[in-house]
Amino acid sequence: MAYVAIADRDHEIEHHDPQTFIRKYIWSQDHKVIAIQYSLTAIFVGVVALCLSVMMRLQLGFPDNFSFITPESYYQFVTMHGMIMVIYLLTALFLGGFGNYLIPLMCGSRDMVFPYMNMLSYWVYLVSVIILLTSFFVPGGSTGAGWTLYPPQAISRGTPGVEWGIILMLVSLAVFIVAFTMGGLNYVTTILQARCRGMTLMRLPLSVWGIFMATVLGLLAFPALLVSAIMMLLDKTLMTSFFMPAVVSAGVQTGYDSGSPILFQHLFWFFGHPEVYIVALPAFGIVSDLLSTHARKNIFGYRMMVWAILAIGGLSFIVWAHHMYVSGMNPYFGFFFATTTLIIAVPTALKVYNWVLTLWQGNIHLRVPMLFAIAFIFTFIHGGLTGIFLGNVVVDLPLSDTYFVVAHFHMVMGVSPILVVFGAIYHWFPKITGKMYNETLGKWHFWMTFLGTYSIYLPMHYLGFLGVPRRYFAMGNTDFMPESAHTLNTSITISAIFVALSQLIFFYNMIASMRSGKKADPNPWHATTLEWQTPDTPPKHGNWGHDLPEVHRWAYDYSVPGYPDDYIPQNVPAEIAPVGRQHGVKH
Amino acid sequence: MTISLVLLAVIMFVVIGWLLRQTLNTQPWLPRTADDAVSGTSIDTPAKTFGLVSFLAVATSLFALFISAYAMRMHMGDWSPVGEPRLLWVNSAFLAFASIVYQWTRNAAGKGKTSRLKPGLTVAGLFTFLFLAGQLVAWRQLNASGHYMASNPASAFFYVLTAVHGLHLLGGLWVWARSMVRVYTGAEADSVRLSIELCAVYWHYLLLVWAVLFGLLLTT
User: Fold this and answer.
1) What chain B residue is nearest to A257 in terms of C-alpha separation?
2) Given A291, A448, A527, B175, which residue has the most CB atoms within 10 angstroms?
3) pTM for the complete prediction?
4) By three-state DSSP, how is residue B9 classified?
5) Among residues A189, A195, A114, A12, which one has the least CA distance to residue B53?
6) Within an 8 Å CB–CB cutoff, is residue A317 touching chain B?
7) How many A×B Cβ pairs under 8 Å?
């Protein structure tokens, strides 16, 4: 197929030079401003979710010491914490935040191809967040159905927030999906249609590959959540029976008849499992770039990394029912999903090997972004290994309702992506703000977060093996729980508070550095990718000044033999600098 | 979920297959000076066309999932088929006419015949409104015959599927209205050609979706 660079498609670009303060910083169509808006909103709502988790931990570590934590509010905290973290923080931050900022810059484009729709995407996202947060203040409070919102419990009497909370949650999710779709169409189209000259698909940095595949997954998987949200909303408001079976509630026969809660579970997890990779793939991509840049070495097995991203994307649609082993499924069905789950571990493990091999004999600079990137490898291997446990039906059944699962998914899709988020923020902070952060504070933040989170989640595996059930408000006096389990719960809570408070260092560092940090070099890490080659730091509207860049090499020309610098930017022509891998690999 | 799986498998097969073709046999770490300025492959189509195709993939996923839910729910024992109003046949004809007229308008725009755009767009829009109005009348008829939203899952699905389809059509009418304004304010065929072309594709797509949904409703 013919290649048409966006430079040759100037008539297609919607020009939107901002003239006023509002058009420049609020109602802005600039992808960088939208990225910052997305990120700040996501981080704000993430802090809310962090506070909720501290409240949950207070109850679990010091049961019945806090009068404001009732069983109802506890379940509301659990539900809102989970939903906010997965959807409104991680999905929005990786795709709306990093996706928006990095795609045009890394592809060598001036902006997203549909900037107006991109702007709308943010504002619709904000509306979804406002609707969600409103549910804290309506009669009955927010929903306490658990983040999976399983019927019949989610809309049955007795569940917290059954009056308004659940309605607002479902409406908020539907609005979020509209926002995501508008953004997602932009990301995909920009990556495929608006790359600068010379930027072939295989010269794209892995960050863009990860964001691209995650967006494809999101576009195809979020409709499943939309379908289930619409149908549950109708069950709640118009008394349809899509999901609601005939149930007696508080001695009264409800008007529902023969609905299928399992149908909801299928729809929810058909979205839910790809969602894991919607969060993970951008993290995989970004961490690859962080490791390569700070180890001064090309990423090991670039093509394999790309194919692994594609394979994970494809396979992620056929593993959803491993979340439903306990629903009483046909054993052959379980066997199929256990097999596909183990197969998806292959490309994932391949990526892990390649990250480790990228570090091998690299010139490792233990700067803050690199610390977070290496920490990610630890936590991801940890969470991935426990995933192999839970992917097997016979192991999953006894562990499914215990803290082992809480530990697993927090390691694999809580701590790991968050570590990448921090690493990425530190890495691109100089480009975004034009200022350097305080390295010492950054290292304090890293060690407190990394060691703190380990001291939270490592003991949870042990609690899970003991059989300590998750979702419980209070454990009570049970014979199978030794005193040590209670002590451990207290210790976990103290660690959680410690980690939560240590984030204040991060916020202080960011704000103080932005106001009075040292002026940043345009390319402080000596990175090769295009975003570091902009004429201005931070990049101005339109990114590239008069001329778009032209790319002549892949994104990983680090430590190329025979070249004096240990990096060659992507836009340096081959006549000026050689193109090649490290250590003189034969061409 | 088989229906959704098959459709998504097809979509993913196309996406991943295309991407693999771009990435196999490439060695990005090697110098390729000769074709640096023009290297790389991309789909040579306007960004808006590509955006629409991507959106159709999303919509296909949405409708496929609704149909999957329909297929799973109908086996639950309380399913009582709805006698679909005959009016739906008439409505289907309206939508088919709208699609045909849109295609006619698209051809006219392609040939630069500006004078045909006004009647073309007007008639296509009229048939579309007739379809939507007809769907509302069908709802009233169904309601009058005692098939309420909550009375049976079959009737609930009828309302939901037709509503979701209708909402997609309303979204299309927004773009249609913008084309109408431009054509009636003197725009030439060339300047609205892409917009009309994309609308025509969208109308064909929604006709196809309606044919599938209508077939499903009739046969179950």
Assistant:
1) B78
2) A291
3) 0.94
4) helix
5) A189
6) yes
7) 191
